[in-house]
Amino acid sequence: MQRLWDKGTPLDERVLRYTAGEDHLLDARLVEYDLRASLAHAQMLNRQQLLSDEDLAAIEAGLQELGEAHARGEWQITLDDEDVHTALEKRLTERIGEAGKRIHLGRSRNDQVLAALRLYLLDAADSLEGAADAVADALEALGEREADTELPGYTHMQQAMPSSVHLWAQGFAAELRDDAEGIAASRRRISRNPLGSAAGYGVPGLPIDRDFTCEALGFDTVQEPVTAVQLSRGKAEAGLVFELCLLLQDLGRLATDLLLFYTQEFAYISLPEEMTTGSSIMPQKRNPDVLELVRGATATLQGSLVEILNLPAKLPSGYQRDLQRLKPPLFRAIDLSLDSCAIMEKLLDGVEFLPDNILLDPGIYAAGRANRLVLEEGISFREAYRRVAEEIRREADDDD
Amino acid sequence: MQRLWDKGTPLDERVLRYTAGEDHLLDARLVEYDLRASLAHAQMLNRQQLLSDEDLAAIEAGLQELGEAHARGEWQITLDDEDVHTALEKRLTERIGEAGKRIHLGRSRNDQVLAALRLYLLDAADSLEGAADAVADALEALGEREADTELPGYTHMQQAMPSSVHLWAQGFAAELRDDAEGIAASRRRISRNPLGSAAGYGVPGLPIDRDFTCEALGFDTVQEPVTAVQLSRGKAEAGLVFELCLLLQDLGRLATDLLLFYTQEFAYISLPEEMTTGSSIMPQKRNPDVLELVRGATATLQGSLVEILNLPAKLPSGYQRDLQRLKPPLFRAIDLSLDSCAIMEKLLDGVEFLPDNILLDPGIYAAGRANRLVLEEGISFREAYRRVAEEIRREADDDD
Amino acid sequence: MQRLWDKGTPLDERVLRYTAGEDHLLDARLVEYDLRASLAHAQMLNRQQLLSDEDLAAIEAGLQELGEAHARGEWQITLDDEDVHTALEKRLTERIGEAGKRIHLGRSRNDQVLAALRLYLLDAADSLEGAADAVADALEALGEREADTELPGYTHMQQAMPSSVHLWAQGFAAELRDDAEGIAASRRRISRNPLGSAAGYGVPGLPIDRDFTCEALGFDTVQEPVTAVQLSRGKAEAGLVFELCLLLQDLGRLATDLLLFYTQEFAYISLPEEMTTGSSIMPQKRNPDVLELVRGATATLQGSLVEILNLPAKLPSGYQRDLQRLKPPLFRAIDLSLDSCAIMEKLLDGVEFLPDNILLDPGIYAAGRANRLVLEEGISFREAYRRVAEEIRREADDDD
Amino acid sequence: MQRLWDKGTPLDERVLRYTAGEDHLLDARLVEYDLRASLAHAQMLNRQQLLSDEDLAAIEAGLQELGEAHARGEWQITLDDEDVHTALEKRLTERIGEAGKRIHLGRSRNDQVLAALRLYLLDAADSLEGAADAVADALEALGEREADTELPGYTHMQQAMPSSVHLWAQGFAAELRDDAEGIAASRRRISRNPLGSAAGYGVPGLPIDRDFTCEALGFDTVQEPVTAVQLSRGKAEAGLVFELCLLLQDLGRLATDLLLFYTQEFAYISLPEEMTTGSSIMPQKRNPDVLELVRGATATLQGSLVEILNLPAKLPSGYQRDLQRLKPPLFRAIDLSLDSCAIMEKLLDGVEFLPDNILLDPGIYAAGRANRLVLEEGISFREAYRRVAEEIRREADDDD
Predict the structure, then answer these.
(1) pLDDT tens-place string over residues B251-267
(2) Catalytic site residue from D24, D38, D164, D279
(3) Which residues 349-368 in chain C show a CB within 8 A of chain D?
(4) Which domains, and CATH codes, for chain D?
(5) What is the band of A14 on the pLDDT scale with cuts at 50, 70, 90?
(6) Taking CB atoms and an 8 Å limit, are A5 and C306 in contact across chains?
(7) pLDDT averaged over chain C?
(8) Using the 8-state DSSP alphabet, how is residue B316 labeled?
(9) Per the CB < 8 Å rule, is A205 touching B174?
(10) Largest Cα span, chain B
(11) What is the arithmetic mean of pLDDT over A177-181?
């Protein structure tokens, strides 16, 4: 592809490329959602006597055919289409004629874009919640498989207290379930019907029924007042991506632990061979690339969040074209999160702990012993602790 | 004075300063919360037969006196204290002797720090929710005061549709209420009892009752398993600060609109004189510094969020001292958000719109006229729109 | 096809997709640079008696043909290739047989990847420097065209001092030239020869000549010691993208000014029609989408920088696979910066100021008048200023 | 301290607190620089016949006394002063009467603030450069002390190639020297004289000599045109803090390596006792808190950079009060960087490697052996590598 600054590109083409950006590629995933939102809007118009039964029937049939044809790969959004909405409107009018244009009554590009995006995000949130829970399941299964394997409990990367693989895995599983809950909670800002807000100031002079499209599309509420709709742009998106940041942070920390356990010096675990890659240098070396890439994904999520938070920052109210730039970081964050969950779930299935290599420092039982002394002899913890420390020192000396 | 982990080694002053950082200043706000958490812990120990009635009575009296003395400014946390927890333990033992040390049974610095912080955060979240709602109230009052004032509805910073001050103010009010809801929802991750998780691996050998302290302190749930407690560090903090980012973003965009309206070229509003500052250059000039500083606060919040998200990123599980660095950005974000809400609430009380200066482009009624034509004549919106556009052009020509 | 580290284990497709990511698409731009680096490496091997003349000749011919074929679109990197380096090695061996494998002596994937990337970045930095300078040129031309147009000088978005379009344009031009200088200065970290560092620990046992490849490829210095090479990953990348952040920030602020000037309330400028887009709502409305998208690009650059800075953060030394994730934000930042410069350069060519609409507040001459009083009457500035302020008030009263 | 939202605070007080922020505390470090800039300005005025010899003498004496008194702690900037500039002007006039006001001729708060800040930044950059170099020195000394200690060279956290403590330390030292060079290069944007730009539009009607103050203060160039001065706000600040980000990133990665080496499982190093802290749980445990806090400082630097980059983003040209918010993250980043360098320098002096615990995997010599085979037998690297791999497998079998 030629860049904008190549000499000889006509100006219109340059402006189109700059303003359309990658929308024609990104929007493929929105086709089915724009179809659903358009259908609900048409049905509402018909109920409100703003669209005839014949036109509605033609629109319904046309939209359904377009959706099926897209799913079969028979057409794609092109750069000239600019985005999914123009692509669909153009093709619908080609198929069913004038009726295709009547669907534009009582809506604007601004509420249409947002309706499709939010419907997609609701589905994405469901998938992401499931993906996070699946990693939690895999962790719990690992904890069960290794129910008898002891593990040092670390603080400051130093052995501190007795723990177990089971307890370690349960801790991460709890955080992943917390992430799944957070993703579910982010639906609050997504599940609001923007249809009927039009360009951001409502539809003067027409009896639009926002409740009907709200129910038809499964949104929780109608977003009110209409001026709030464009003001809220970026907040629902940021809300979801923030939760994905936490999710990837938890996955990244899980990866860090596993990378540590997988060093030759720890040697606490083995990884499934399919999850490691060979080296061009050492025949016996198997590199844990997948875990490194999961750890690195933390950075991509944080970058995406910063990008999303920055976009609406300081903008005057009312729709601004800057907001179009929300899509790339949003889709990037969603896709990478889904992929990272899927690969970690699979990887965890193959992790095996090597109990023979896991050596617990005797000192890590000191606190427990001191606690028991307190119970048995009624002395203070400080006194008990002092006595245990002395015993441990003596035992260590005996070992020498 | 001895720090908890002191074993007689003379400590290099530089290391103390580097490791303690600003904690002795930051922790002033945590005194009352550490007292509450310590009290609940002592009561639990007593109930579990791990602390005598006399010791409990001494501890209760001692903690209460310390709290009152701190509120009266009679003592402060010093650098040598290092942090609020050591400061209190030291002073408690000075007052009541050995009993003061018995409170340390069954807890560790790690769960103690977190308990105090979360109790503080619950209070802070309440204040922040109230502060955001108060700005929404002020916006709604402004909308009522200016109920009859028309305003252009902008898209792309261009006049697009008819709107009103009422609708404009309601849109921002709705977003601020949404922010308040978001802050309230962030309590989910805060309101979890960490007490009993100790260093992160529980309290072996002692019959600790985590449900008792949970109820006594008003937490929603006991955080389980114990290994999740330290893994979750930073997530509740980030959750609250993320919501504050959205809050400040909304305030910042409100400031942007008002700054635009306050230019001599728009001249849509006047600001209360106390809210503007004079210029050393132009006598008649009144600068809207408060609004600029609110707009700039967006940046501070985003920076704080990035700092908080970065801190736990990629860390191995188990407590790490890096997490101490969470406090400065957290407190910074909370304080600036409270102050920014308070000042905006006051400023909005004094905003007056100047209807004579607000001129609506006649073209912004075009969409409404087209909609009415559709209703009256049954033609398509495209056709109606074409006719209205023609009429507007004719009207504009007549004006010339 | 076999990946370099393949030893016959059938690779799970998911792992390949996750680990290869989008490299096969991203790496298209690196083909020519990997060819150049490979050629220089082969010539060095030959000089050092590690590659025969026949093998070198075969390699040279093979690499050249591959490059030309790629430029003609005859082959592309596929997902199975994984990245540009495997793609080229495989195709070279297909063409010239065993000799194709001999090029791998004395280098590793780690230094090879970095050599190609840095050569690309040096070219990119040149283009970016030129693109920033071209915007500065367009600004200076605009300043010349509008040499006689007065403009208020604003502080706090309030008219403060007399200024001119010329001075306004010169200010932005100076900052863009400063950005260009910054981009040029970022070459310092890029222009270092990594070849010969191999996996990060040099090439034991072989007489590699790092100076030869340094000179052949036009790098400024050989990066020493070999352990610094992988430690420095991300720093040169961040250095360039940081400068692009500043560049886009300047472009974004320029866009903000123009968007303000383009409002109906200011109406200081007109924009070329090709640079605005129509509205589906108001016939006479022309939206300045290009400027909004440039303003929004600020966010994408900041997000990219955060992503790049985060990737190497906290990693242990030595190559880690996380670093592969540097490429997407790096290329994204470069492409968007080039495109934004190109479109702004074109847009500025068509900006026209509308002097009739630019009204300067009489008060903005106060400071100058006071200065002149000081000169003429030898009084203090404070006294002069007081007198001028009084005169202005009187003049304003006379106008009423 | 009471917060703004406390009921009962009069409005003026609230506005003052919000607008002044922490400037009265932050500005203490700027006193000496504002004095120097004021002195140079007064001398220029005198040379240009705009200030009498007597007034200049009074100003010189007054400024010097104020500086000395401040250094002795006899006065401090108060909240009522608002910032360093008002504090000095007020006190100067108290001391020397009317002459104190004459210094305000031909300058504005905007260029005065910037002059003091840049002079401070030039000094800060020098200190930071020295601090980074001192860490490099300490690393090189460590490399010398441990000249004979072997270390595995890691990739993917797996042993990959033979290396040494010397080579490891040299790699980090090279990066720290690179950071020092980066800090020095950031002076380019700092060392520009803003004096004479006044509010951002120059000093109409007065024969100001910007070259004189430039030379007197040691700036490299006069910043031209005057409109560029305020446009450039934040760029020099960001430039320095960006370099500090890289510096802290390198320190953080050094800390990560040392934390890994300090685990009981690696046990490659011991740390000086003064640099570790005891545990309340395990008597024999010494925690590496300093290293963890250095690792965590990465996050603070990144947060500061984001805050600084965000502040000027999207602002219209001309001075805006938002820019006042640049100081806290700027000073925070500088102070933390200096402290972190100082503590790491000290810590490195006491690091000792424990060669007995450092076990190199025999496989890490494979690449070197293959290279030697190529040299000796003229076979390809692939063939040599295959043979070595086979030998290693045989040797490993013999060990069993």
Answers:
(1) 999 999 999 999 999 99
(2) D279
(3) 367-368
(4) 13-105 (1.10.275.10), 110-208+218-357 (1.20.200.10), 362-399 (no CATH)
(5) confident
(6) no
(7) 92
(8) P
(9) no
(10) 95
(11) 98
